[in-house]
Amino acid sequence: MTATAPEDPTAVVEVGLHRVGFDLLTPHVSAHDHEHRREVVLVEARLADGTVGWGECSALSAPTYTAEHLDGAWLVLRDHLVPAFLSDRRPRVVGHPMATAAVLTAISDALLRRVERSLATELAAVLGGNPSVAVPATAVVGRHATTEDLLATVARRLEAGAALVKLKVAEPADLDHVAAVRASWPEVPVAADLNGSGTDEVLRPLDRMGLAYLEQPAPADELVASARIAAELSTPVALDESIGSVGDLDVAVALGAGRIVNVKPARCGGPHRAAALVGRARNAGWDAFVGGMLESGVGRAAALAVAAAPGCS
To answer: Do 135 and 210 sit in the same domain of this protein?
Structure first.
């Protein structure tokens, strides 16, 4: 889509939408999803002076993680968000943070490239510091059918430099897998991600394994349940799906629903809003880390810029 060329060289004159797909090296299996292949929408924003920036909409193919999904996001981008930005109107779109984040990131990327400034430097400055030179990486390992296959996958991730291993857990049968990883690499921090599927039958044994944290033990909209779990267990609770905005985090802090927040720029409305979440978490005494959405390199670059900002642990 193209707008009439204005005199302002920083004005957005063209926005392209590119739907691309790629196969995953290993299937990603969680409590609600089984992904072999990923499709995303890349957003290309062009300024009047020719500078180009990129963003990515990383919504999943089905509405199993959040209500937003790729087909719906494509329509929102094509029919609402892009026309609004090209006509210099404020988009009147309720929800759809991943689609919104993609356009905002592309425009921000173009404006920063125009002045030869990186997104990481920009976000670090907002939080009062300099970007980290190196960012430790977590290996997120999906559910496996056998312990042997899981251990082989974890070994490859650790050899590649992962500093922490996060295992997807959904059923009591997964407990033996977690225990096997802890026994095989006792020096490596291990966390468990339940994607809202936690039950006492699973949470109590996990709490005895000395894990770094338990992520999203209760459904996204049940912060009171998360607060109860956080009070009853000794393992720190991290929140992911429950936190999409600074307001969500404020409620979680007030309830005592956790101690850690997983900030995903794609889901929180873009890198700048994600950085605001990191800053609010730091001020509240919570730890924060940046998670991914099985993005392409475009989305991962934006996430890495947030992860390099002060306040991410």
So the answer is: yes
Q: Which bin fits 48, alpha (ψ -120 to 50), beta or left (φ > 0)? A: alpha
Counting as low any pLDDT under 50, the low residues of the chain are 4-5
Sole residue written with tokens 């004159």: 13
CA dist 77 → 12, 33, 67 (Å): 15, 24, 16
Last residue of a domain, one of 83, 117, 151: 117
Euclidean distance between CA atoms 27 and 38, whole angstroms: 10
pLDDT, one tens digit per residue, over 4-45 is: 445 577 789 999 999 999 988 877 777 666 778 899 999 999
Q: pLDDT tens, 102-134?
A: 999 999 999 999 999 988 888 888 788 888 888
Looking at the structure, tell me whether residues 143 and 53 fall in a common domain. no
Tally the domains of the chain: 2
The single residue of 144, 168, 177, 267 carrying the catalytic annotation is: 168
Task: For residue 5, tell me if it sits in a domain.
Answer: no
To the query of whether residue 166 is one of the catalytic residues in this protein, the response is no
Residue closest to 75 by CA, chosen among 39, 41, 107: 41
What pLDDT does residue 65 have?
86
Q: Domain residues for 192?
A: 123-307
CATH of the domain at 161: 3.20.20.120
Q: What is the pLDDT of residue 257?
A: 98
Strand arrangement, sheet containing 164-168: 138-141, 164-168, 190-193, 214-215, 237-239, 260-263, 287-290
**Active-site choice (38, 157, 177, 264):** 264
Shared domain for 129 and 113, answered yes or no, is: no
